[in-house]
Design goal:
CATH architecture of the largest domain: 3-Layer(aba) Sandwich
Number of strands: 8
Radius of gyration: 24 Å
Largest sheet: 4 strands, parallel
Number of domains: 2
CATH topology of the largest domain: Rossmann fold
CATH class of the largest domain: Alpha Beta
Strand content: 15-25%
Shape: elongated
Length: about 280
């Protein structure tokens, strides 16, 4: 019978930045409630000396070792050291890499040099975040054509947090509020490169969010900003624009930011595949 425990030392070791490991660990650990997880992060382990120092530290706090290491010799040494300590060690990407290799009928490249691809992706995300912050809430209209995605919607439809989430995934994202009294610039309707997506929500949910916003700012919660007719008119105004332009629309009423972003990324993939002539 397996012994249970409410405490785990989790060692995340990588020859890269370790971002992949962090994301996998977060996803897995979310499935276990009431467990104390002590994470130990060991990034950029690329030499025998570094590996030896890390192994010494791991020995003082034994637990589960998860790793992403490309170099076969380093992998073998890490596995041997972990086993000598009686620790379970898992290469988290191997099952997926093996499956893809089997389907494609070819071997994956196990090269530490491919780390530079991760570095480039990291800097792409940093650039995307800078772009997104600079083009929030209708700012810097002249730069919209350089965006990957432009989000449009009435106030409080999660445009900014969704934009930031997409930026962290490497998508340069701009967003603009749609206000009946202030029509958007004509440039919005002339964009070619970006995917323009409309965000909408239910009137009741929007009013609730806006009221909470007003209360958090110590403002009166009975302004036109939360008036039933006014909110309905705003949403109708936005829906007409979406329909006239043929933009895809996502209802964020019951979606988390992550779910909304995932739907947008899927739209981007579908658009790219269509442009490449794929089905």
């Amino acid at each position: 019978m397996t012994e249970t425990t409410d405490r785990l030392h989790l060692h995340l070791l990588s020859d890269s930045t370790g971002e992949t490991l962090e994301n996998i660990a977060k996803a897995v650990l979310s499935q276990f409630e009431g467990v104390e997880i002590i994470k130990h992060f060991w990034p950029l382990v690329r030499s025998d000396g570094h590996l030896n120092r890390v192994a010494t530290e791991i020995a003082t706090r034994p637990g589960l070792v998860l790793y992403t290491v490309a170099d076969p010799e380093m992998r073998a040494k890490l596995e041997a050291k972990s086993h000598s300590l009686g620790l379970r060690v898992i290469s988290v990407l191997d099952p997926v890499v093996d499956a893809v290799s089997a389907v494609l009928g070819r071997q994956a490249k196990a090269s530490v040099g491919r780390q530079h691809m991760l570095d480039e992706a990291y800097f792409d995300r940093v650039e995307a975040i800078h772009f997104t912050i600079a083009h929030d809430d209708g700012a810097n209209v002249e730069g919209w054509e350089d965006a990957d995605i432009v989000l449009a919607g009435v106030s409080r439809t999660s445009k900014t947090p969704t934009s930031i989430y997409l930026a962290n995934r490497g998508f340069r994202t701009a967003n603009i509020p749609l206000v009946p009294e202030l029509p958007p610039p004509e440039l919005l309707y002339q964009l070619k490169r970006p995917l323009v997506v409309g965000l909408t929500t239910s009137p009741d949910r929007l009013i609730q969010i806006r009221r909470n916003r007003l209360l958090s700012l110590n403002q009166r919660p009975d302004t036109a900003y939360v008036d039933d007719d006014r909110v309905a008119a705003e949403l109708a105004f936005a829906r007409r624009i979406f329909a006239d332009q043929g933009w895809p629309v996502i209802d964020v009423t019951r979606r988390s930011i992550e779910e909304t972003a995932a739907s947008i990324i899927k739209l981007c993939d579908e658009r790219r595949n269509a442009e490449n002539g794929e089905r």
